[in-house]
Design brief:
The chain is built from seven helices and nine strands, in the order E-H-E-E-E-H-E-E-H-E-H-E-H-H-E-H. The protein is an alpha/beta fold. It has a five-stranded parallel sheet with strand order 2-7-1-8-9, sandwiched between helices. A four-stranded mixed sheet has the order 4-3-6-5. A hairpin with a 2-residue loop joins strand 5 and strand 6.
């Protein structure tokens, strides 16, 4: 059985990674989704085990120590990481897996899985639009929004390290481009 490909979607906070992945999974419900673990507090409507595995800092560090997190990093004061077991199980069963990772997380994943991993950087149409999206969602304090915007400038500078760059100006077009990338990767 052929192993599934691992598709990592990264980009600055507010660019629409979650929305794009949700739409990809609607189009192809057979995609697996690797649920990340995080130490940040749940936002309204987020569900444990579906949105994230919400952990305390101590719980997260214990998972890292036990080798149960493939990659992780810290972003705006919180840990984010990929649990090893679900990702390996899905891929070994031939399931193509979508991941929503930080920029360093995607680069580590590519290093670990080589050609089995496809990294996609989701870029905003403009920095102004990104700021509008972040402030418009109203889920975080202004101070956190400003930290995310400051970090976004650094993240956008890393885009050229990814296999592909997709601009999320139009959701349907971005999803189509990513589906084309995935289909191309499956043929190789």
């Amino acid at each position: 059985m052929k192993r599934g490909i691992i598709i990592s979607v990264s980009g600055p906070s507010g660019v629409g990674k979650g929305t794009v992945i949700e739409k990809l999974r609607e189009i192809n419900p057979e995609f697996g989704f690797s649920v990340s673990a995080t130490t940040r507090a749940p936002r309204e409507g987020e569900v444990e085990g579906e949105s994230y595995f919400f952990k305390t800092k101590e719980e997260f560090e214990a998972l890292v120590e036990a080798g149960e997190i493939i990659e992780y990093d810290e972003y705006v004061g919180n840990y984010y990481g990929t649990p090893a077991v679900p990702l390996a199980m899905m891929s070994d069963e031939g399931v193509d897996v979508l991941l929503d990772l930080t920029i360093p997380g995607s680069l580590i994943l590519k290093e670990m899985f080589g050609d089995q991993a496809v990294t996609i950087f989701l870029n905003p149409p403009s920095f102004e639009e990104l700021e509008k999206r972040l402030t418009g969602r109203g889920t975080e304090a202004e101070e956190v929004v400003q930290k995310r915007l400051a970090e976004a400038e650094n993240e956008i500078a890393e885009a050229d390290k990814f296999d592909y760059i997709v601009i999320n100006d139009d959701l349907d077009q971005a999803v189509k481009e990513i589906m084309d990338i995935i289909n191309k990767a499956k043929e190789e």
